[in-house]
C-alpha cells in the first residue's frame, strides 16, 4: 500500500471544534462514532472522492482516537469495519490516517496490526514506534528489537519505546546498554518517563546506584528539568541504595519541594534504619506547609518498626487519623502489627488485627505467627494458625505451612508436624525459588537462581 505524505496545515485542525466532532466526541459507543463519521463522508463533494481531503483525514484520525478510548472497542469488529471504509474512501493513503488505524489495531488486534504494517510501504518513525510498543506491551521483546534494528531513522520515542520494552520485561541490563548507546549517539534525549522507570530499577543496592548515578549525570549534563516524578525518583534511588548524602543533596537542590520529595526522603531513611532522621524530616514537613499523605505515614511507621519505637509508632498511627484524617491501609497495619509483635506485645498485636477496618491478609497473620515462634507463645500461635490457614494459597504462601510445621516441632507436637507435611503434599504446596543478582564489570545486572528457600 503506497502512503501519500501530506503535511497538515494548522487551519485544518479546527475540525475538532466542529459540530460533527462534538457529536462524535459524545458518542455512546464506537459503532455510533463510526456511523456519525460515515454521515460526515456522505456530505463530501463527489470530485473529492479520488483524493484524500485534509478535512476528512483529520476527521478519520479524530474518530479513530475516540473509538480507541472505549474499552469495548477491542472486543468488537469496529476497527476492521473502519479499515474497510478507509480503503473505500482512499483515506488510508494518508500517512497520519494509516498511523492512527495502526495504533488502534495495536491496542486490540496484533494480527490486524501486523497485516496493516506490512501493507504500508512508506513507513515512518511513527509506524515503527507504534509496532515496537505493540510488541513490547505483549512481551514480544525479540520482535520489538528486530523492528528497532530495521528502522532507517530513530527519534526519542523510538529509543524510549525499546528501552521501556526491556525494563517492562524485567531486563534492566539490556535497557541500560541501550541507554548508553543512545548517549553515545548524542542525537536524542530520552523521555522523562523512561528515565523515571530506569531510576526505579536502580533502587535497592549501592552497586545499582552506580548506574543510577550515570543517569543523574546525564540529566545534569543535558540540563533536563527535574520535575516532580524525576526528582522524586532520584531521591528515592539514592535513599534506597543507602547513598543518603546524595539523596539529601538532590532534595536540597529541588526548588519546589512537595509531599512526594519529602516522602521519598523519609521512606529511604526508614528502610536503612535511620529512625531519628526520618522522624526529623517528618517534623519539618508541617512548618514547611507540606501535609503528609498515606505513603508518608508508611515511611514513618516503618522507621518506628525498624527502631522498635512502640509508643512513637502508636502515636503516629493515631495522629494519622485524628490530625490528618487519613484512613490506615494494609501497609500501615502491617507496620504496626510487626512493631508490636517484635516487641513481644503479642496480645496487643492480635487485638489490633481484630479491630482492623479492612480484612487482614496472609502477611499480617504471618508476621504475628513468626513472633509467636520467636517468643515460644504456643497458645497465641494456635489462634493465629486457625486464622491464617483459612486464607493461605498453597501456590503462593508455601512458607506459611513451613512456619506452622516449625512451630509444632518446637512444641514437640510431632503428630501435628506430620499432618502439616501430609497436607502440604496433598495440596502440592510450592515454596518460592530464591534468586540473587549482581552487577558485572560492564555495569549490567545479572541474576542467578538459587535453591528453594
TrEMBL record:
Pfam families to which the protein is assigned, alphabetical: E_motif, PPR, PPR_2, PPR_3
Highest taxon of the lineage: Eukaryota
Signal peptide: none
PPR repeat extents: 124-158, 258-292
UniProt xrefs under PROSITE patterns: PPR
InterPro entries tied to this protein: E_motif, PPR_At4g14850-like_plant, PPR_rpt, TPR-like_helical_dom_sf
Keyword Repeat included in the entry's annotation: yes
Keywords, ordered alphabetically: Repeat
Keyword Repeat among record annotations: yes
Record-level Gene Ontology MF annotations: RNA binding
GO biological process, alphabetically ordered: RNA modification
NCBIfam families: PPR
Protein name: Pentatricopeptide repeat-containing protein
